[in-house]
Amino acid sequence: MMDALTYFLSQFVNGVKLGSVYAMVAIGYSMVYGILRLINFAHGDIMTVGVYTILVLTTAFGMPLWVTVIISVIIAVFVGLSAERFAYRPLRSAGEETTLVSSLAVSIFLQNLLVMIFSPQRKAFLLSEQLTELHSFGTIRLSTMNIITFITVIIVLLILSHMIKNTRIGMAMRACSDNMNAAKLMGINITSVIVTAFIIGSALAALSGLMLAGEYKTIDPLMGFVPGLKAFCAAVLGGIGSLSGAVLGGFVLGIAEMLFAGLMPTEFTAYRDAFVFALLILVLLIRPNGILGTKDGGRS
Amino acid sequence: MRLRDSNLFKFFIFVLIPLIVLIICGMNSTNYYAGLVHLFGINIILVASLNLVNGFSGMFSMGHAAFMAIGAYASALLTLETNQKMTSMSGLPEWLMNLTLPFPIALLIGGFIASFCALIVGFPVLRFKGHYLAVATIGFIVIVRAVLDNEDQWTNGARGVTGLPNYASTWIIFASAILCLFILHRLLNSAYGRSLIAMRDDYVAAQTLGINLTVCKISSFCISAFMAGVAGGLWGHMQSVISGKFFYIEASFKIVETSIIGGMASLSGAIVGSLIMTFIPELLAPLETGITVFGIQLPELYGASNLILAALLILIIIYRRQGIMGYNEIITDSLFSIKTYTSILKKSEYINLYTILINMPKKLISTFAAASKTDAVKNKKRKERRSKNEKNS
Fold this sequence. Notes:
Order of helices and strands of chain A: HHHHEHEEHHHHEHHH
Order of helices and strands of chain B: HHHHHHHHEHHHHEHHEEHHHH
Helix content of chain A: over 70%
Distance between the termini of chain B: 52 Å
Strand order of the largest sheet of chain B: 1-2
Distance between the termini of chain A: 44 Å
Oligomer: heterodimer
Radius of gyration of chain A: 19 Å
């Protein structure tokens, strides 16, 4: 009985670990989606770009991790903004399917760019020993990286919610998310709002890329896409457009996935990804606005 | 009379030349380039059937590869010999183990199974709109892949099914492609097709006119899945190896990409798009293995062709959102119009074509001259205006 409980608890903690990574990616997704109503498929690939930057800078130049993280954030922001400028801005008046396809094209573009530069082979991605050191809390073992990830998610959530509630640009963001045209008529500079959203989203993508790679320990040019999609599922689960919803959805999805993988009989564990998407379809059918979602037309 | 109105010209371009190419391919069907032409035919079926859902019905499905996979596996299981199934798929029930059907019947059954899956999936999923439908259908691909990779006793798992007999000849591929195009062409010019288009343009108005949206959505989804299943079966029997990884998200994106480049709301667009997306990667293939350009040895650039196609897709979306063909149906219209075929018997058609071709250079020169003349006039006016402005300031 005790063993079963410990096993359950360890799976739960694993779920929280995975969930904090999903939550991090989902916040970035939600930022962009909330304003543009655009599923930015390229988000996952911006994540990969960030990871590769870190890998190159640490292995080739031997820079300390914090410097590489800053540079990778800058590069990710640059990539995100160029995608916005060249692929999304000309399509702002188009329907949502058109921008969706455009983001898909950006995603394919970035994936193949990385394949071209770094070859499609998997590469090892090892964090320094301080970060992978394990701490034991009773029967639960967590690495420093896990703790940092969890704390970062909470801090990012607090800062962003504060920003959206209280600052000028946050107010503008809420206005745009409510009604883009009305916001434009009130004299809000839509472009600057969207650019801000992309800056925040891409920066978060780079950070979450580091976390994801730390979890996987190997990286390849296509690694970002499916986690990106899952993060979108998380954002939908929690109620897309709301930041706390994205974080909650990330944790719920991570925990659900891990419990599914850990508690179901072994022949079902390979259905993890399928389970996530089945869950997404189910949630969209039963509660289309997610757990914390407010009313929002046009979803179903 | 313009060149594009000449039925005889259409006959030459859209019927005779493709027919000659196909006959050549049919005679050397093991040739590498014949394989490409076969792929082109399969792509036509896939993209045209996707256009029925995405372009004409106004939904946005990305799950086409899943139906392709279902069709491919179903027709593979029905055409393989018993001893082949014994070794790799031991979990099959007795009757399926001993069942080996002729290829066309297996293809049709594969299509029906795909269409049945579309019915089951369609009921819940087609309630979504826009990008939620897109993500839900991507989710369907992930689910199908998981099933294919893990139900070892049925599908031989991630190793895939090998040794499919090579039944997919030029004739059967292009007969199915033409048949699919014909069915879609007739459907879209019927009351049913018009109700789909009405649904796409304004679903509220369509509903008030008595169109049952649910029936329309699900039936078009099922028809599309049926054709995708047939195309999947053809693909499998062409490659002779199938496994889950060939029918994953990338494959589906490729179909969507092709559909958008050609033009979503046009069957001719499906043909043009498939033509581009089948042969351009082939032209770009040398880039991936490294070539010498102007004396500079380029390194091997894996992924270069996909990169260029992605850039092309972005450009097309921005500058010509409706795709290359837009709403134009010139190819299918002339393929399935009796006038195109009777024109070869009419003397007047030949005379017409002859005069058009004779006058062609003259006409071109005159249009160029006119264009440059108007340009010169415009430039002159612009200069005058500028000098006036300068004087005023």
